[in-house]
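The pair is listed for reference:
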Amino acid sequence: MGIHSNATSSSNGIPARSVYLDHAATTAVHPDVVAAMVPYFTASYGNPSSVHAWGRAAHQGMENARRQVAAVLRCRPREIVFTSGGTESDNLALKGAMWAYRRGLNPRKDPSVGPGHLIISAIEHHAILHSAEDLESHGFEVTVLPVDRFGVVNLEDVRAAIRPDTVLVSIMYANNEIGTIQPVKEIAEIAHEAGAYFHTDAVQAGAYLDLNADAIGADLLSLSAHKFYGPKGVGVLYMRHETAVLPQQHGGSQESRRRASTENVPGIVGLGAALSRVHANREAESEYVVGLRDRLIRGVQERIPGVHLMGHPEQRLHNNAAFCIEGLEAETLLLRLDMRGIGASSGAACASGSTEPSHVLRALGVSRELAEGSLRLTVGLENTPEDIDYTVEVLAGLVAELRAVEPAMQA
């Protein structure tokens, strides 16, 4: 099932194992995706807005990718907007929908009803949280919903938060740190009953969950190619027909005047190829990855005392194993794991360097002390059962060593 070999050798010739377990941060570009992209760096390198043969070839590649994405989302190709990634897609969805309301462009809502209201959850990605903060600075109002100890939004909380001027409800499909999957279909139904749009950040869901926009109930949906074995720097915002979204980037008339800037054609072609590939292989690859994830969770829980599984025990992403380990600091553990050839994370890659505990873990009610021992292990296609066993063995040994050292350092 692997897409790359994990066999390496150390400088002294002794075989060493290299295990990448940070697929929630990014994935390797699949060889088939690389092959699809190469011609658009070389022969078909034209600007897709140009009318000559080079431009037409680039435009054709881009439109083929648009159709590939639309086929997975079961939508019209013109409802697909290509962006620079998940962060831009989230910004465009939230800011675009809210400002369209204020400008009187939303056919469902009269701006005289209120200042414009947005609903999000406490465990959203920072692209959502910071966009919401920016909107608040311009007079929009935001409700941040709590989650339970598994990270799940309560449907009654959504219903209770709805107001006459609620423009948009934005709840992520699956969480990037703890892997919890939200009841997005039911949340969308509540939003639609009130005449509000529903947006979901589906960036982490792209490789494993159903992306049928109608089945989800999404009016707006964000994706990022590098989370499903595509290239970095390219994403998608699905925008249901007649959803009122004001462009947030000004310049040319690209993407049907919804997102100015010359399109990243090689990246877009790679995104289309990557999404088409994971959709075609989703059942088999999901089964494989779930087996690795469960092996990892079981091994960690059996070998390491004082470990807590974060997120929902069942409704979680296929590849996510997130823990909090008592009596440890994640930074030290991650450095030791890296020295043993294991790539892991303490949470969202975009929040690395922060001295504050994860906002996601805080929302779950995890104590600051326990949150300091957070460890996110996310498996992928190139991992093997042997990788998992090696990781469990190394992790158990390191936890025991670090726990033994910590009391001595405090003495």
The radius of gyration is 22 Å. The longest helix spans residues 385-410. The longest strand covers residues 320-325.
